[in-house]
């Protein structure tokens, strides 16, 4: 199924690039533009929903959708490029009916917000979109927060509007980027767990209504409440809002949540630590798995901090407890016991301080992190008393 959609997307991109600039017809006075907002799906890349732009002009027989969210899993080194923040997306086009059928089949709703544009603004936006379809313009460097399928549309509308757009602050307490992301990962707790590992302190700064437009449904809210300082007077950005496809799917949270799993790991660590101290048992396998997984996650965090172009991965306080260096005692306990004891004490102290000072750390930790922190600290501390 994925291969079929990849071929369809590739065909749409080819059709898009085949449209020469000279073939762009002026729109009639009947033309209209609408923001289409699709509700979230179940897959990781569907969790935040989708935005697209509809252009309709009955007199010219036009009813198409411009979509800045086209990508292919089969791009060479896709996973590495995505982790590195070097994924390229492209703009594509499709028929409006086909677009609605696709999201109805997924179980997502589609809401339409009719943009309140005059003829000059419509023509400017039409020409802007067609310029983006040219081969030299259609590919762009995707950025999860600042340059995605939603923000590209926001930027296009802002550029083509004849006046400045004023967004209303819709919340008494502004959301942080992380809080906004968590709104859309409530039923995908493992995805939320992963986001909270990879995204650093920058994600915890407050975001205004315009910045929150990286999330399609929040951008729809922003557009509905926005006004345009037009030369002829202030006007609302959206003239009509309706749901054109109703949601059919209901997504439930996973039964084994990160908190349940992490608490179970801590409980197992408690039992193992008791047996180790009481019976001088050496559970090397448990520590190897625990520190090994922690090391892999730590290397990923370090890679994101140093090399990734993704926003907000640079200053990540998770490195205080998800650290590749926790592997060291596995190699020093036997041959350098004194060093190992000091090392374990330092590691245990760092993790305990991280737990105690977490309210003061400028980064929000996922609640499921704390049982894991306690597990690592417990195993580090147990190694001190059981071996010396």
UniProtKB/TrEMBL annotation:
The chain crosses the membrane at residues 256-277, 284-306, 312-331, 343-362. Residues 33-180 form the Lnb N-terminal periplasmic domain. Keywords: Membrane, Signal, Transmembrane, Transmembrane helix. It comes from the Bacteria. Residues 256-385 form the Lnb-like transmembrane domain. InterPro entries: 5TMH_Lnb, Lnb_N. Residues 1-23 form the signal peptide. This is DUF4105 domain-containing protein. It comes from Candidatus Enterocola intestinipullorum.
